[in-house]
Design brief:
Layout (H helix, E strand, L loop, with lengths): L12 H4 L15 H15 L7 E5 L10 E5 L5 H11 L7 H20 L5 H7 L9 E2 L21 H13 L5 H4 L5 H15 L22 H11 L9 H7 L10 E2 H20 L3 H18 L2 E2 L3 H21 L6 E2 L2
Parallel strand pairs: 1-2
Antiparallel strand pairs: 3-6, 4-5
Helix pairs in contact: 2-4, 4-6, 6-8, 11-12, 11-13
Length: 342
């Protein structure tokens, strides 16, 4: 299907950021998201689940309480908006087929829970906890825990009972996930087996909750893209501690004989995108937060007048290791900061 044309497609970023979200007028229909949702529905049908979650465009990913549907962020509905999201947030959550399907399966777990009111069941509460538990703004995961499945980044199942169920459902739903083998010996296997049993029980049943309500649809969002991104960036804002001098001085050189070598600040700037994406992938840290750390490291390298000497490949590997170690210490060390629960 030919892609719909919009007047804002050719606007510069500065002009685009001045537009309101509702003026974008993007929809799921006619985009690659339709194919993703079609695949999701096929997976649900294969499992005998009658629910077909309705989907709409909003500001972010979410599935509202008591509504068996899925809100999809506006930027995924058009390549120009994905490009802006990448610039403003340094990553595009759900921007590839596999990432989009992973999130859709997770949100489908919420939708199934809402449609069949699963949280009211005693066994559900025994395994996952109370859905009525207050939703936290922050959480502190334990990466070593085997009580939870691992599906989305940042050990998201540990943030709330509803997220625990949605993550478990997503692992169960994914074709060829081999969850019985993957989680053999884990306490989380009991949750997966329960979901398997529960889905078999409701297979073929008409969902008690069938509302097609759309919460916060794009057409009702009056804030500008600029306001949206300022708020979103502030949410991930993190002021890194200035504790890098010793490590940077061990990695780079301050000796006078190397004064003609490449400045370490220049080296970090050239490799920052590659290193940032790699560390984010393996630690689960947000790229905006890592970028703040990299800015601080660049500043310290300038102050210390450090130079990049030796093999560029070896320096890149060692610097990646350094940033990973600092990130993991910040997340899970004695003075670890809390994780944002989205």
């Amino acid at each position: 299907m030919p892609r719909r044309k919009y007047a804002w497609e050719k606007l510069a970023d500065e002009q685009l950021l001045k537009l309101s979200l509702r003026s974008l007028r993007v929809k799921v229909e006619g985009t690659w998201l339709e194919d993703c949702l079609g695949t999701l529905n096929e997976e649900l049908q294969t499992r005998g689940i009658r629910l077909r979650p309705h989907a709409w465009i909003s500001a972010e990913w979410f599935s509202p309480a008591d509504v068996p549907g899925i809100a999809i962020p506006f930027y995924l509905a058009h390549p120009r908006l994905m490009k802006l999201e990448k610039k403003m947030m340094l990553e595009v959550e759900g921007g590839t087929w596999s990432e989009c399907m992973a999130i859709l399966r997770h949100e489908a777990g919420h939708a199934v829970q809402h449609a069949y009111q699963l949280q009211r069941r005693r066994r559900w509460q025994q395994l996952f906890g109370l859905s009525s538990k207050r939703y936290p703004l922050y959480y502190r995961p334990n990466p070593a825990s085997r009580r939870y499945v691992q599906h989305l980044r940042r050990w998201y199942a540990q943030s709330h009972p509803d997220e625990d169920f949605a993550e478990t459902f997503a692992v169960w739903l994914r074709p060829r996930s081999n969850w019985r083998t993957r989680y053999a010996g884990w306490p989380a296997l009991k949750k997966l087996e329960y979901v398997d049993e529960l889905m078999g029980e409701i297979a073929g049943q008409r969902p008690p909750v069938m509302t097609r309500e759309r919460i916060d649809p794009l057409s009702q969002l009056s804030q500008t893209l600029g306001e949206h991104y300022r708020k979103k960036q502030a949410f991930y804002e993190f002021k890194p501690p200035k504790t890098y001098d010793r490590d940077l001085s061990r990695l780079f050189s301050s000796e006078p004989r190397h004064r003609r070598a490449q400045p370490a600040a220049v080296f970090i700037r050239r490799h920052r995108a590659q290193v940032r994406e790699l560390v984010a992938r393996w630690t689960g840290e947000n790229q905006l937060t890592l970028d703040a750390v990299l800015d601080d490291m660049i500043s310290r390298c300038r102050e210390l007048d450090l130079r990049a000497t030796g093999s560029e490949r070896k320096l890149t590997v060692n610097f990646t290791v350094l940033l990973t170690a600092k990130t993991m210490h910040a997340l899970f060390g004695p003075t670890r900061r809390k994780w944002i629960a989205l």
